[in-house]
Amino acid sequence: MSKYWSKVTKSLLPYVPGEQPKDKKYIKLNTNESPYPPSPRVLEAIKNEANEDLRLYPNPECNELRTVIAKYYNLQEEEVFVGNGSDELLAFSFQTFFDPGRTILFPDITYSFYPVYCQLFGIDYNTVTLDDDFNVPIDKFFMENGGVVISNPNAPTAKYMPLKDIKAIVDFNKNSVVIVDEAYIDFGGESAIKLIKDYPNLLVIQTLSKSRSLAGLRIALALGNKELIKGLNMVKNSFNSYTVDRLALTGAIEAFRDEEYFHETRQKIIFTRERTTESLKKIGFTVTDSKANFVFISHPRIKADIIFRRLREKGILVRYFEKHRIDNFLRVSIGTDNEMEAFIGALNEILSENGL
Amino acid sequence: MSKYWSKVTKSLLPYVPGEQPKDKKYIKLNTNESPYPPSPRVLEAIKNEANEDLRLYPNPECNELRTVIAKYYNLQEEEVFVGNGSDELLAFSFQTFFDPGRTILFPDITYSFYPVYCQLFGIDYNTVTLDDDFNVPIDKFFMENGGVVISNPNAPTAKYMPLKDIKAIVDFNKNSVVIVDEAYIDFGGESAIKLIKDYPNLLVIQTLSKSRSLAGLRIALALGNKELIKGLNMVKNSFNSYTVDRLALTGAIEAFRDEEYFHETRQKIIFTRERTTESLKKIGFTVTDSKANFVFISHPRIKADIIFRRLREKGILVRYFEKHRIDNFLRVSIGTDNEMEAFIGALNEILSENGL
After folding, report:
1. Do B234 and A33 touch (CB under 8 A)?
2. Is B82 left (phi over 0), alpha (psi -120 to 50) or beta?
3. Is omega for the bond preceding A14 within 30 degrees of 0, making it cis?
């Protein structure tokens, strides 16, 4: 710890992203990336944009992309904000809508970046304990608070909360902002976007990193009432006027235009998820009901960290969280059918190594 | 103002970037972009990187780019941090090294984003008044403070402070971090990078947006003692693990590799700046001594805002700041020789319109 660090820096326990190893080629099921490449139209558009105009700043308002997204979701451009991945949008949102001294609420088991933002911005939080099946007890959000954050489907549990429950939470909390983090919504859930017209306190965050195969491009969107979006712009323009580069803007526009490719690849992932779930259950795993591009699994006889390490040795990366209540679970991203067959094969080997 | 905004959001007066108009084609001398395209090798590298790997997250540590930069500047990789433009690096740096309650210092006339960061992070600041010729009175920095920020060459004055003065400030302030913002250093100044080995309290920030013609790609670097860089990583990883996308990483690497193109284009800009300065003086303008890719000019008889508006009507954009002490100046980016001839021609017309 350096004497030159600010007090807040000294207090931080940063988020740790899933590993991106370079020592050998792995089957990478640890960071919820899409196993399919981006749309060929996206790659083509980016290549065309790699031209002399890169000497110029991007459009700081991202107008063209925001227009395309607004049209796609039947919103107005003023209800759309775009940024450098949903982590950046979450960071801006915590700072824009939550105040030190007003306690915010989120589930005890959820995206582990939320408490990190709270540390960074000095925001107090309480966690709502999920039930034993990782369901969200929605009545626990029916109390005075300074804001609510819900990941739906939730990570890493993969569980989806029906839209009527989201609506009940947003409806009760009219005096605070409810952020619904929909990073995984395109894999079978129903988005809360349709509630935006009725609820000025609802902010929906989505990303192009998962269902649109563009984790490497850093693009996400926040959708909500224009007053919320205006607030986000205040904070963003006090931090960095240009967080989305020219190539990312162009690629994102084309990703929204190529609807066919989007639907085709996400359907493939959903199909593989269902197949994988069946196979996992057959060999004795507990699998939560997933509406995401990953599954959350546990075995009654072999500890998750043992399976995690053994899979790694066999060249398969999954995610293990050494955390209370979920330290016997693994989060496994859905790969291609071939990758998931290799994964099931490796699990079968591990089971027999353990005499099962 | 919305009831959903946090207290800090309600207090913000965001930075306003130079306009990026779309109504017609302008000669754009208002945002200090390079008039020259990026190196052809950079564009080629980006095109090659626009491939299926965009489905994968970028390397959050940016190791390859950091190795290239470290080698270029004869530093260690642990002394290099990269981010999404120097605005992001400045924001991270203010948060990492400055504390509420410990007053930081920067010049009264400088990059107008600095006070905005202070608002955003609740940091107190005092400004040091530049002398009438916009020189920095360095002894004013020889006092107790919570940090120092110096833009060198300074913006928008274009004036350069010799390295011995920077060294004196860094040397006196061993208990606080001195940030030297070198966005424009490649146009004739001497970088403070060589002081890093001796001063653990020095952070140097540079960007690829100006001298490397990559404003559209969003890449900048912070260089300093490894403890400072470690602090920056703490904050960044509590905000957004991946702020630099795959294409930007690749483009930036190639920009550092193509040294020849870099030297050729920046020399051209320096040459055009000197020619432009001479022409401006000939027609009666006051021009500060510039070591940047822009000039800061004033006319004794015609008000700057009048020239600004008339140039705009003639299709030439420059930057006018309606601010105390500099409200009779214009900041003019250096374009190509042809663009600067058109600019001088337009000024001549404006002079004769005003009977001069």
Report:
1. no
2. beta
3. no
Beta bridge partners of B126: B105
Closest CA of chain A from B339, distance in Å: 16
Q: How far apart are the first and last CA of chain B?
A: 47
Range 311-340 of A in CB contact (< 8 A) with B: none
List of chain A residues whose C-beta atoms are within 8 Å of the C-beta of residue B33? 55-57
A-B C-beta contacts closer than 8 Å: 269
From chain B, the residues in CB contact with A247 under 8 A are 46, 50, 216-217, 245, 247-248
Q: Which CATH class is domain A40-258?
A: alpha beta
pLDDT in tens, chain B (356 residues): 899 999 999 999 999 888 888 777 899 999 999 999 999 999 999 999 999 999 999 999 999 999 999 999 999 999 999 999 999 999 999 999 999 999 999 999 999 999 999 999 999 999 999 999 999 999 999 999 999 999 999 999 999 999 999 999 999 999 999 999 999 999 999 999 999 999 999 999 999 999 999 999 999 999 999 999 999 999 999 999 999 999 999 999 999 999 999 999 999 999 999 999 999 999 999 999 999 999 999 999 999 999 999 999 999 999 999 999 999 999 999 999 999 999 999 999 999 999 98
- Those of residues 2-21 in A touching chain B at CB distance below 8 A are 2-9, 12, 14-17, 20
CATH of span B7-37+260-353: 3.90.1150.10
Within a 10 A sphere around the Cβ of B338, how many other Cβ atoms? 11
Whether B36 sits inside 8 A of A43 (CB atoms) is no
Distance between B241 CA and the closest CA of chain A, angstroms: 7
Instruction: Measure Cα distances from A68 to A65, A73, A76, A252 in Å.
Output: 5, 9, 10, 9
Instruction: Return the domain boundaries, chain B.
Output: 7-37+260-353, 40-258
Where do runs of H (alpha helix) occur along chain B?
7-11, 40-49, 63-73, 85-97, 114-121, 163-172, 226-236, 246-257, 259-282, 304-313, 337-353
pTM of the model: 0.97
Question: How much is the CA Rg of chain A, to the nearest whole Å?
Answer: 21
Instruction: ipTM value, please give it.
Output: 0.96
Two structure tokens written together for A183: 């990073």
